[in-house]
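Severity: low
Component: inverse-folding endpoint
Summary: output formatting inconsistent between runs
Steps to reproduce: submit the following structure tokens with default settings.
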């Protein structure tokens, strides 16, 4: 059995890439899916409008407010889970963050104003827009808007606005077998977008190399099947996987992976308890 290892290849404010060696594909794919569907983030859930003199319906503005990405790293520590707060009312400070929207453009203003996410006021300073310049509504001179919204933790399977990841992708490691003795000018032209492969083929020798996880292999597969028959072969290695997650800005990418593993642990624990309970019932019934 292959030893399991984890290698961090890339980490910044928006993206994380991990190399998982020896991990079962279903496990890695579960992490990928849970990053999209189960990791909780904070988002506006509903809105009460007190005044809306803009040309846009309340429902459309409410939808826009719900899609504003909110920083949620601190919120995960401070607020109740979606399951805890399922039946809570908006006055429950353990579950909801209050969001205020008020803007008025004077009658004598020279031009209208774009109200942005930065104009929202939050009852908790740790919850704030990840992208302050996100436009919400345009107000003409003499128009105003006043609303109170409530944000809570939710999960992506409820609505996409609660998904912390814009991309969550799992890829096999791509290996390229090459044989320089069988290379042709047409083959070299076909694989010209892969300088490392061209160099290997020009060496005249044969061997195997790994393609960078950032490179797409579809064009190389086309060359394998056409101009490079016998010279290039693309192989996908399921024992070495690359997991790339791109954050929407709601959570730090590393936090998304951490929370996804916690979600998986919780689901496995729940399943084990259900199986144990079923076994006990079966034993008592017999």
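Observed output (run 2 of 3):
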């Amino acid at each position: 059995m292959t030893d399991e290892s984890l290698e961090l290849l890339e980490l910044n404010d928006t993206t994380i890439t991990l190399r998982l060696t020896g991990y079962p594909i279903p496990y890695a794919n579960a992490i990928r899916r849970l990053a999209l569907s189960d990791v909780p983030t904070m988002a506006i859930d509903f809105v009460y409008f007190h005044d809306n003199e803009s040309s846009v319906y309340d429902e459309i503005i409410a939808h826009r407010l719900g899609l504003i990405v909110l920083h949620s790293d601190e919120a995960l520590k401070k607020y109740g889970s979606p399951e805890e707060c399922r039946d809570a009312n908006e006055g429950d400070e353990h579950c909801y963050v209050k969001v205020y929207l008020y803007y008025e453009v004077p009658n004598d203003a020279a031009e209208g104003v774009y109200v942005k996410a930065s104009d929202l006021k939050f009852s908790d300073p740790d919850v704030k827009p990840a992208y302050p310049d996100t436009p919400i509504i345009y107000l003409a001179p003499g128009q105003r808007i006043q609303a109170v919204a409530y944000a809570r933790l939710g999960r992506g399977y409820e609505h996409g606005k609660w998904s912390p990841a814009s991309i969550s992708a799992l890829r096999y490691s791509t290996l390229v077998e090459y044989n320089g003795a069988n290379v042709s000018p047409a083959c070299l032209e076909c694989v010209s977008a892969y300088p490392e492969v061209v160099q290997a083929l020009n060496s005249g020798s044969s061997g195997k190399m790994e393609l960078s996880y950032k490179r797409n292999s579809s064009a190389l597969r086309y060359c394998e099947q056409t101009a490079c028959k016998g010279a290039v072969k693309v192989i996908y290695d399921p024992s070495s996987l690359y997991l790339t997650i791109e954050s929407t800005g709601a959570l730090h990418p590393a936090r998304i992976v951490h929370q996804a593993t916690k979600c998986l642990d919780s689901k496995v624990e729940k399943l084990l308890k259900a199986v144990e309970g079923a076994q006990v019932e079966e034993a008592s019934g017999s």
